Structure prediction request, 154 residues.
Amino acid sequence: MTATASTGRRLWLGYAASLGAAMCYGSVAVVGRKIVSDFAPPIVATSFSMMFGTAIVLALFGRHVHVDMKAAPGRAWLFVGLAGLAAAWGVSNWYLALSEAPVVLVAPVVGTSPLVSILMTHLFLQRLEKVTWRTVGGALLVVAGVVLVTLGNR
Prediction:
């Protein structure tokens, strides 16, 4: 396999994984709303979803953890910790939002997270990735869509 074919294959795998993530996050909005409406407060929903998520990830990828832990430089653990902190706060706020507002409002607002990613990419990953005007324009369309959905549900 050539380097170009390998890069193309990895890109398609990235698209497929992104679509899978979108489907999972879209589903968790509906399930999460049911959980916080009928079964548990947001902090309990957060705790159990994070616990089950950790168990599933360990079951799937746990055999590689010890190798990765040895290979990762110390500085990497700072970034892993920050990512975990952001994920925990994100899930907590997600369930809190679902307990207070309808899914049809919460999901689009949460869907603006790429705006944060684009801004942070521009600020911190300039050597790895380039943020183009086309990307910014697409992000602005996302914001316009969220505004329309939010105003349409008032």
Remarks:
- DSSP finds seven helices and no strands in the chain.
- The CA atoms of residues 4 and 33 lie 44 Å apart.
- Residues 7-101 form one domain.
